[in-house]
Amino acid sequence: MPRTCTICTHPSREALDRALVGGASNRSLASLYDVSEAAIRRHASNHLPETLAKAKDAEEVAEADDLLADVRDLQARTLAILEAAEGIRQHRTALSAIREARKNLELLAKLIGRLDDRPVVNVLVSPQWLELRAVIVGALDNHPDAQGAVLKALEGAGNAT
Fold it and tell me: What is the torsion angle, in degrees rounded to the nearest 10, for the CA atoms of residue 129, residue 131, residue 136 and residue 140?
């Protein structure tokens, strides 16, 4: 049964991890926290990358939340300008605010994953694929069973969703 990491269970683990990430030497940390240098080294190589990955993920989520909040704030301000412009019948300003509000909504939709404007390519109708398919099927002319199996597999792949 594997041993439990003494650094992971250490009462000062967070401080140890911060010091390791900060570049402190294994020797100085071992001395400071009364643990072995080998334990520090094992922890740094086996557990610290996992901790850093989780921290990075959390940081990315926080940044995404901040960006989303900023865009929502921008949308609220744009709608306030639209409302004010409509109230005093400034139609040009209102139309500009409508354009900006539409752009904000598009950006929000992209950020929350509701809008994906990447192009979709159907390779099954591309000239290169059709040519390759003809070459494959032609190469199997002398092997009708194999040719039939390949054609059936290709048709099945084209119908898969």
Answer: 150
- The share of the chain scoring above pLDDT 90, in percent, equals 42
Q: Would 116 be classed as within a structural domain? A: no
Euclidean distance between CA atoms 154 and 161, whole angstroms: 13
State the pTM of this model: 0.40
Is there a single domain that holds both residue 105 and residue 127?
A: no
Residue 133 backbone class (left: φ over 0; alpha: ψ -120 to 50; beta: rest): alpha
Structure confidence by residue, pLDDT tens digits, 11-67: 999 888 888 888 889 999 999 999 999 999 998 888 887 777 677 677 777 777 787
Planar angle of CA 116, 118, 121, nearest 5 degrees: 125
Residue 52 lies in a domain: no
Distance CA 151, CA 133 (A): 9
Same domain, 96 and 135: no
Residue-number span of the structural domain to which 132 is assigned: 123-159
Q: Is residue 69 part of a domain?
A: yes
